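User: Sequence recovery, please. Input:
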């Protein structure tokens, strides 16, 4: 691909993805068990609507869409950062154990300490960060190579999944409230959930913008980054910690939603290339758009039941993951 083609593709994506996000958000506001037209949506925001439509939009659909937007942005950003720092397009917070660490902390909190539910984002972030530290220490041998981090992460992911299952078996009488969360979904999410996740999500996404230069330099290789004056190990750890914050924030509200951090950054990378000046912002918007669309489909297309969005995304993400393996696009 020559420079002109890549530049053209980047321009198209910069225009297309925000438009898709707006379109999917409007689709989510209008489509459901009760259909609401665009004119009626406009009337809701101009205080000229019927009470029922206002309640549906303002109390149910709008906060859910905003939460889906932030969850998708967090997961895609987390995956994008991990793929860069580990130089592996198959890195993902769900695959290498970062999400599982936040999930275990969240399960312990919900089952054993439900009175501290307001601390769920902090606890999920703490679980993700501790998991990242453990993976990093296990992979350390005069430095932590990306391959060792991924291998350690896969092993820790299996261990954390076993611990989560063990806690649920021991406290089987309390597990009903946790099961929908484990499947990953936005059912029942409200303004309350948006308020306690938004600060963490927005801070994490904002901080990720400041990693663009370091991420681009790390792609050159550790030796080249050292020669350019970069503190490679410190930067790698800080980026992984930031990824943990983003993943833990998403997990605390939406549960274990997988594959967003894998599919979105990798798909965008194949179109616009590895330059994080374009890859990271487009991944943020793309992740938000994907989760908003998937959640609308999951809650609307399978009436009278509501399919957890995590299940739908797993059904979409697994074939994509296998396609990447088949094409050997893993380096």
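Assistant: Recovered sequence (331 residues):
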């Amino acid at each position: 691909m020559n420079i002109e083609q890549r530049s053209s593709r980047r321009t198209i994506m910069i225009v297309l993805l925000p438009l898709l996000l707006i379109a999917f958000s409007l689709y989510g506001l209008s489509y459901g068990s009760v259909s609401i037209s665009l004119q009626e949506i406009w009337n809701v925001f101009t205080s000229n609507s019927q009470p029922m439509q206002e309640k549906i939009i303002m109390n149910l659909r709008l906060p859910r869409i905003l939460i889906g937007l932030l969850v998708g942005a967090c997961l895609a950003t987390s995956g994008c950062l991990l793929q860069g720092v580990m130089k592996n397009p198959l890195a993902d917070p769900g695959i290498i154990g970062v999400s599982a660490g936040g999930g275990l902390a969240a399960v312990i909190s919900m089952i054993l300490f439900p009175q501290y539910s307001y601390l769920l984002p902090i606890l999920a972030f703490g679980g993700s960060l501790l998991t990242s530290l453990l993976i990093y220490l296990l992979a350390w041998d005069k430095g932590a190579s990306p391959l060792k981090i991924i291998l350690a992460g896969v092993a820790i992911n299996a261990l954390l999944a076993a611990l989560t299952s063990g806690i649920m078996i021991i406290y089987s009488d309390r597990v009903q409230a946790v099961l929908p969360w484990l499947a990953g979904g936005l059912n029942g999410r409200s303004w309350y959930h948006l308020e306690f996740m938004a600060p963490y999500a927005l801070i994490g996404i904002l901080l990720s913008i400041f990693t663009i230069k370091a991420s681009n330099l790390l792609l050159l290789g550790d030796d080249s980054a050292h020669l350019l004056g970069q503190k490679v190990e410190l930067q790698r750890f800080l980026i992984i910690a930031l990824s943990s914050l983003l993943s833990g924030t998403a997990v605390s509200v939406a549960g274990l939603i997988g594959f967003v951090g894998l599919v979105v950054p990798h798909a965008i990378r194949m179109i616009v290339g590895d330059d994080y000046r374009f890859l990271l912002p487009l991944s943020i918007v793309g992740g938000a758009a994907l989760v908003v669309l998937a959640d609308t489909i999951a809650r609307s297309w399978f009436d009278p039941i509501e399919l957890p969005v995590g299940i739908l995304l797993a059904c979409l993400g697994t074939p994509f993951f296998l396609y990447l393996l088949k094409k050997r696009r893993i380096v």
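The CA atoms of residues 83 and 91 lie 5 Å apart.
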